[in-house]
Amino acid sequence: MPPEPTVSDEPDRGAVTVEAAFATCSIVVVAVLVLGAFGLALGHVRSADAAIEAARLVARGDARLAHDAVTELGPAGASLTVSVRGAMVTTEVNAKPFGLVVPEQWCRARALAVLEPGVEVPESVS
Length: 126
Hints:
4-stranded antiparallel sheet
């Protein structure tokens, strides 16, 4: 005759398995968030580098090269806006974060530069 099933006096049996599953899921979620944060920070740094280089190039009179620099240095899909006020050049690089649901201004950078002597740049450069 088979032994009769007994009720365990330990009501927590199997709880460790559930806790391990929750811990594993939590670790995966945190890892994804950390990687996303690093990617977002990298996008912002690349936008800042592209804006600085574009401001320098426009201040030298090479507005066309500034667009090429943003394409090369900035994140994918980055756009450049240039404005000139007096002797100051302001560049702004905007990039959409890579598929994340975050505000677009998180991948936006501005840079300022002073026009080189003798360089004439229109008030709005495309």
